[in-house]
Amino acid sequence: MDAARDLFSYRKHWASRLTPAPVLPMSRAEMDALGWDACDVILVTGDAYVDHPSFGMAVVGRLLEAQGFRVGIISQPDWTSTSAFEALGAPTLFFGVTAGNMDSMVNRYTADRRIRSNDAYTPDGEAGRRPDHSVIVYAQRVREAFRGVPLVIGGIEASLRRVAHFDYWSDTVRRSILFDSKADLLVFGNGERQIVEIAHRLAKGEAIGAITDIRGTAFARQGLPEGWSEVDSTSVDEPGTIDPPKDPYAMDEAPVAGGAACASGPDGAQPAGKEKVVQFQRRVPKLDRAHTVVRLPSFDAVRGDPVLYAHASRVLHLETNPGNARALVQRHGDRDLWLNPPPIPLRTKEFDAVYELPYTRLPHPAYGEAKIPAWEMIRFSVIIQRGCFGGCTFCSITEHEGRIIQNRSEDSIIREIEAIRDRTPGFTGVISDLGGPTANMYRLACKSREIESACRRPSCVFPGVCPNLNTDHSALISLYRRARMLPGVKKVLVASGVRYDLAVESPEYIRELATHHVGGYLKIAPEHTEDGPLNKMMKPGIGTYHRFKELFDKYSKAAGKEQYLIPYFIAAHPGTTDLDMLNLALWLKKNQLRVDQVQNFLPSPMATATAMYHSGRNPLRRVTRTSERVDVPKGIKVRRLHKAFLRYHDAENWPLLREALKRMGRADLIGNGKHHLVPAWQPAGTGKPVASRRGSDRRAPRGAT
Fold first, then answer.
1. Strand order in the sheet with 599-600
2. Tens of pLDDT along 549-607?
3. CATH (domain of 441)
4. DSSP-assigned states of every residue in 111-169
């Protein structure tokens, strides 16, 4: 994985002789002031343009600028015509289109398919400033305005919709967004390597259709290139009878025939006194992986067969490690969707350089005094790492950013804190967060680069922490100590979620956290208490939460601080029964917890849990016609009930809970004693029936493209 070209080793484009733009232009007048007759690249985004490294468009724009390209931004354009897309003219190289930092459907709709009343990435939080399926709509307008200009799509919406995927809001399987957007190239995952190489190759005169060899890109093609071999996905993950394994996401654990390294007897039994050696059984002939493509079931096949959809999802997730992933292909009509292996993670030196580009760290001046909530939340925070090896099935971070942690150096992080202190308006001395997708995966990695490159497991911490994983938090502790000692810095908080099953491996980290870096409350995500849903989420058992809480309370008390954990839970996740939710509610009551912010499971594109939701099968194991079925809470009534169990203390939910408890044979939990879950009486003016929306709960939202 070290063979990737350094991001900053390319010969700079001619425009590098120009002075870097104070802020990337969003209007022709700004281009004129810079002396530009045209932009080389124009980036279209569904977010407000904030020149800050927490915003994807700013990172891509400033990185391309550092390569010597003139970059313009079209932010939250009016999509009802082409006028806004023509504002900067035609770029000399390509258009880049993204929905922004969030999938546009997740941004616009709640888990109950209701339109959200605000948008954190829009000035003053105004809702409705982006269309449904923004990438498709923006790309269509770009094509109408400039038909012959190369079009590249990327960002999280394109990344997570790169193959045939289940769309929760329309309750259908949609084809790859590459085809619906009519783009030339799709960039998936973190896109720095891909976008830099695309820009330089186009600048040299290469045709966009000839760029088919960049990792982390997808495109349409016909036929198999010369020198390539193809294997069917059912050969990679052969269907068959399933015996319940200890590890619910394990591949078949079978010795390789004739392999002396297996240390097993002729019948496959392990010799007495010897530890079992586990190896994955090879199901296909040994081929050149670099020139082997795995064919997934076609779009038509997965659209019509949920079991094949679950199988395709499993195979896709098995091919996500940059060290061993093969290319994937999936037929869409008369064309193939081709996905190259994932991009190589950034080295620390490259990661530092990307985050130290000349960002203003402010919203574009065109927004005036308007407040952009997402920026207000992160303007005093610092990203220290990227990626997540947790592999939670309901989360898309691993699918997008990868499970190999990319780290910034301690010096680079300190320089950014100093820049916040010296340049960011309103800084009061408090760094609001040092983190990333998780707070405490900084510099944690596999102890062996060779093992890491060969591993195909989706999680390093489930069902337990892998013995090959380095869990030493000393580098993070060192960073915390250095950061809080900086002149002008009064406090450094940790607001990113702490992975508590890792934290308990380092009590010293918990001591450091509780003593210095918690502002009274620390958010943490046990997600559930019951093994059924936790196994489908790939989350640790609730006992691990209790161990963390014991240490956190101990060190908080030793520091003379009254501090609390704020636990987060998910309702209606695949694998959750009514009884599971009842047991969770009883646990909350026993522990005197009243959670206010609760969330129903939202099936986001490409997530493993979404495949469970759609298919009713468990893709953490081999998927067959007779394989494990998963309880899936669907429909507005059951989803409301599961959410009501989390808010058992809310009088509005009591009528619904009484009805459910009677149906479940647990009327003994209705009463006015301390051991009851809900009282038998109802306060006046509460518990009135809520009028349901017209139509089915599975109706597509208005305006879906």
1. 521-527, 564-571, 599-600
2. 999 999 999 999 999 999 999 999 999 999 999 999 999 999 999 987 788 999 999 99
3. 3.80.30
4. TTSPBPS--TTSGGG-S-SS-TTHHHHHHHHHHHH-TTS-EEE-HHHHHHTSSSEEETT
In a domain, 480, yes or no: yes
The SS3 call for residue 598 is coil
Q: Is residue 651 part of a domain?
A: no
Residue 83 has pLDDT above 70, yes or no: yes
Which residues lie below 8 Å from residue 186, measured CB to CB, with a gap of 6+? 152, 153, 154, 158, 162, 176, 177, 178, 217, 218, 219
Q: Which of 196, 213, 230 is the last residue of a domain?
A: 213
CB atoms within 10 A of CB 209: 12
Q: E strands along 469-624, which residues?
A: 491-492, 521-527, 564-571, 599-600
> Is-contact 366 349, C-beta < 8 A?
no
At which of 159, 191, 213 does a domain end?
213
Distance CA 682, CA 686 (A): 7
| Average pLDDT over every residue of 76-97 | 98
Q: How far apart are CA 586 and CA 675, in angstroms?
A: 9
> In angstroms, rounded to a whole number, what is the distance separating the alpha carbons of residues 57 and 34?
20
Check pLDDT > 50 for residue 7. yes
The SS3 call for residue 440 is: coil
Expressed as residue numbers, the domain containing 468 is 348-585+602-608
> Where residue 173 sits, what CATH number does that domain have?
3.40.50.2300
Do 181 and 150 touch, CB atoms closer than 8 A?
Answer: no
Please report whether residue 98 resides in a domain: yes
What is the domain count for the chain? 2
Q: pTM of the predicted model, to two decimals? A: 0.89
